[in-house]
Amino acid sequence: MPPRVTLHDIANEAGLSTFTVSKALNGGKGVSAKSRDHVLAVARSLGYVANLAAQELRGSVRSSVAVITAGTTNAYYLDMMNGIQRAMQDTNQSVVLMDIAINGVYDEGLEDRTIQRLLEARMSGVISTLTLKPESIERLAQWDIPVVFVDSSPPEGMAHLPSVTTDNYNASLLVGEHLAEHGYMDWLFLVYPGIWSSREDRERGLREAARRCGAEVQVIESANDAASARQILSDAFDARGGKLPEVLIAGNSPLLLGALTTMRERGIIVPHDMPIVSYDDFSWAPFIEPPLTVLDERSEEIGRRAAETLIRIIGEQIEAGKSGETAAPSYRDEFKQQVPVGLIVRRSCGCGAEEASDT
Q1: Residues 204, 207, 212, 217: what is their CA dihedral angle, to the nearest 10 degrees?
Q2: Would the pTM of this model clear 0.85, i.e. be above it?
Q3: DSSP string across 192-214
Q4: What is the C-alpha to C-alpha distance for residues 37 and 268, in angstroms, rounded to an integer?
Q5: Are the C-beta atoms of 302 and 166 separated by less than 8 Å?
Q6: H or E segment at 339?
Q7: Residue 144 region, left (φ>0) first, then alpha (ψ -120 to 50), else beta?
């Protein structure tokens, strides 16, 4: 890991005093525009990260945790955030929410700017719902900022990093087995892009479930928002020449909303014309008519476990620092967890009211 860049390093490279460099970086008076631009250029080239927390309050300790989400319109994150907040409420840590996929569209530049801001603010730690770039992880590690992935996998080659996830493969098998019990042989899976790491195992599990029962599964990909899902599904229906699939599987709640919009516009009645099931339970799923069959990923528990893991890592860092040891986060195999799921069977899948139950 390269050493952290200091004001002294910038001063040596720029050929100026540390006093002048400090004033230039902090917007102080008495520095010419030419000198300021030169200092800023040198700082960028060396990878310098300003300590905004120290600028705002000298001697402050790290007291904020960042939660990086990937589209705050997803109802899944509401319960997950509740779990995180519950775990954090008895600590001195505040929680800051940062979105790098506004309206469900991932933005690489926004990830870079978000990581820069986290470094400048000297966050205690990060909980990320999206697989970050390896470069982002390396930058966080350079400043001893631990990261825990929630409902997502670490970047390739960084499997040692903590994560709290759903067993998406077996969850999809559970969904597929229920569809097979109904005798459905023509499945349509509306899913989000692969930048969300849960996509691969969800699709793989559904394909395997379809293979086992001899069903066909068509996979169509949409951007991770309701408007895109509405259009993509409408196009898919048109391409099928008016023949509806025997069942529709929505990859998450934003895509479900888009799907329900399309179906309402076309007068498709659930489950009479086409049954529907969805990933990610949410509070109003039982109150839709008909009530929705959903996969319950226990998102609040996932959030709570992720926060508890991060709290533990941060606590160990603090104790190590008091003993004069390295403050780098220590990651162990026990910090990688999977949370079991359950299928909540209601009437949207075609089950009658007398059959519907939690399984």
Answers
A1: 170
A2: no
A3: --TTSTHHHHHHHHHHHHHHHHT
A4: 61
A5: yes
A6: strand 336-339
A7: left
Q: Which two tokens stand for residue 308?
A: 């508890």
Q: Are 317 and 327 in contact (CB under 8 A)?
A: yes
Residue 342's nearest CA partner among 280, 266, 283 is 280
Helix, strand, coil % in the chain, rounded to nearest 5: 45, 15, 40
Question: Which domains does the chain carry?
Answer: 7-48 (1.10.260.40), 58-165+299-339 (3.40.50.2300), 168-296 (3.40.50.2300)
Spatial strand order in the sheet of 336-339: 94-99, 64-69, 125-128, 147-150, 163-166, 336-339
DSSP per residue, 106-134: --HHHHHHHHHHHHHTT-SEEEESSPPPH
What strands lie across the sheet with 186-191, from one edge to the other? Answer: 216-221, 186-191, 247-250, 276-279, 293-296, 342-344
Which among 76, 83, 130 is positioned nearest to 294, based on CA atoms? 76
> Residue 100 has which token pair?
């790098």
Query: Are the C-beta atoms of 245 and 186 separated by less than 8 Å?
Result: yes
31/21 Cα distance (integer angstroms): 9
pLDDT in tens, the chain (359 residues): 556 788 888 888 888 888 888 878 876 677 888 888 898 899 888 888 766 544 443 434 567 899 998 876 777 888 899 999 999 987 878 899 998 988 778 889 999 999 998 988 888 999 999 999 999 999 999 889 999 999 888 998 999 999 999 999 999 999 999 999 999 999 999 999 998 889 999 999 999 999 999 999 999 999 999 999 999 999 999 999 989 999 999 999 999 999 999 999 999 999 999 999 999 888 889 999 999 999 998 999 999 999 999 999 999 998 888 777 778 899 999 999 999 899 999 999 999 744 444 44
